[in-house]
Amino acid sequence: MKIHGYIKENLKKRLIEDLEKEKGKIVVFSALSLSDEEKELLYAKIPRLKGAYIEFITDRNLIAGVIIKIGSKVIDLSLKGQLNNLAQLAYETNR
Amino acid sequence: MENLGIDPKLMLAQIVNFVLFFIIVKKFIAKPFIQFIANEKKKEKDKERILEEVKKSEEECLAKEQELKLRTKKVMTDALDEAKKETTTFKSEMMRQAEKEVSEMKVRAQKQLTDEREELHTQMKDQTLNLSVSIVTEALKESLDEESKRKVTKHILSNMPSQIAVKN
Lengths: 95, 168
Prior knowledge:
The structure holds 2 protein chains of 2 kinds. In chain A, about 50% of the residues lie in helices and about 25% in strands. By secondary structure, chain A is an alpha+beta fold. Chain A has a 4-stranded mixed sheet. The model of chain A has no long low-confidence stretch (mean pLDDT about 85). Chain B is mainly α. Chain B has helices at about 10-145, 145-160. The longest helix of chain B has about 140 residues, at about 10-145. Chain B is rod-shaped and about 200 Å long. The chains are: A alpha+beta, B mainly alpha. The interface of A and B includes residues 35, 42, 45 and 95 of A.
C-alpha cells in the first residue's frame, strides 16, 4: 500500500513530537502511593528527579518497591521485578 | 528221324526260334534285370553303410551327450557351489549391515531418549520455577500488609546505589 507523501510527512512529524515528549517524561510506578519521606529518599539517590515533573502511578502488582521510567530508560526496583530477575537467573542456570 | 516223329524243319525252326528268343531275352530282359539286381545290391550296401554311419554317429552323439551331461553337471555343481558361497557371503554382509543399523538405531534411540529426558527435566524445572515464583508472588501479595510493603519500599530505596544502572 502506498502512503501519500503528505500523510507520511505528518506521521513522521507526529512521531518525532511524541518521541520528544516521551524523552523528557518521568514516571514512577509504585505499589502504594509514595510518602514524602520516600520521595526524598528517591531524590537523594537520583538528583536528576528533583525539580522535574514526575508522574506517580500506583500499581498493586509490583507488591513493593518502585519502577522509575525516564524517557525510554527503566529502573526496576520493585519486588515483582526482583522476583522476575530471580526467575530469569534460574532459567538461565537451567539451560 | 521222320520215323522217330521228328520233323527236321520244325526242329530247325524251333532252334532258330529258341536262339532268337535267347538273344532277345538276354539283350532286352536279362541285362536290365541284372542291372536292376546290381543296383538293388548297391543300394542295399549304401543303406548298410549309411546305417553303420548313423549307428556310429548315434554312438558319438550318445558319447557327446554323456560328456555334455557330465560337463553340465559339473558346471551346475560349480555354479551351485558358487551360489552357496555368494549366498553365505551375502548373508554375512546382510547380517553385518543389519547389526550395524541396529547398533546405530540403538545409539540414536538412546540419544533421543536422553535428549527427551533432559528436555522433560528442563521443562519440569521451568514449570516448578514458574509455580514457585507464582506462589511466592501470591504469598507476598497476600501476606504483606501496607506497613510491611512501605518498609520494604523504604529498604529498597535506602539501599539503592547512587549511580544506578539504567536499563532500556
